[in-house]
Amino acid sequence: MTDEKPSKKVADQYDRGYDYTKYWDNRDYEHAAEEIAIRRLLDGRHFGRAADVGGGFGRLCLLLREYADHVTLAEPSLTQLEAAKKVLAGTDVEQIQMQADDLQFDDASLDLLTMVRVMHHIPEPSAEFAEIARVLKPGATALIEVANYGHFKNRRRYKKEGKPLPTEPVSIRTAPADEPDAIAFVNHNIDTVVGQLSSAGLHLVDKLSVSNLRSERLKKMLPMSVMLAAEKAAQRRLASRDFGPSIFLELRKNGS
Predict the structure, then answer these.
(1) What InterPro entries does this protein's entry cite (predicted)?
(2) From CA 66, how far away is CA 47, in angstroms rounded?
(3) 117-131, pLDDT tens digit by residue?
(4) Would strands 94-97 and 68-75 be described as parallel, antiparallel, or unpaired?
């Protein structure tokens, strides 16, 4: 008798009756903050082939198209890809079903890869990072957003309690999982993630602290223009302290 390998987990949770487009209602600040970060990290550069991995309904693909000749939305959810048809209608952005640990790109075929709001679903990302390294050309760029457990509020709390920040991912699920294979919700230690990326051959070039003013109270108090001006000023200044809830990492694949 042969041992059976465990079945590969399929990232299809967003096909189970959840409309992710609705998540972005009243989140104009967060969306704009991420666009500010991407523009800052890609400023002055242009790429051949780019892919947005786990890009949902194509929220950031049109922005990437400004920086790349060819953009692919690489998304595991058929529901999200269906929604992307409307968002990306009339554009040349390619839409393909695939997930981050099994990218359907040739070796060393991409000049740019982005992965935003995906890491909070991946407690152990070694397979995903290996795939990202595989499909990038030597010297190519990856922008990976990481949900940051070591943000300002948590650092202050752990310091007050005299405890070190966890180095492993921390589940932030607020309600019991409704299914045995329910999607994970975790925050990461940024230093741990940078080490994992380095082990995969992806080395840190730059980072930004993003969504630094994420607060429903501030959204009610301050005009959007004021919040975004403050966000733009803060992203680089606060990066070294991993201040915000979202950290954007710019990485380069080993090689010339």
Answers:
(1) Diverse_substrate_MTase, Methyltransf_11, SAM-dependent_MTases_sf
(2) 9
(3) 999 999 999 999 999
(4) parallel
pLDDT(7) > 60 = no
The whole-angstrom separation of Cα 114 and Cα 39 is 12
Cα atoms found within 13 Å of the Cα of residue 187, Cβ hemisphere only = 16
Q: Report the alpha-carbon distance of residue 139 to residue 217 in Å, rounded.
A: 42
The dotted CATH code for 13-253 is 3.40.50.150
Q: How far from the centroid of its chain's Cα atoms is residue 225's Cα?
A: 24
Long-range contacts from 226-230, C-beta under 8 angstroms, 24+ separation: 227/29, 228/29, 228/32, 228/33, 228/36
For the chain, domain boundaries: 13-253
The per-residue pLDDT for range 232-244, each reduced to its tens digit, is 999 999 999 999 9
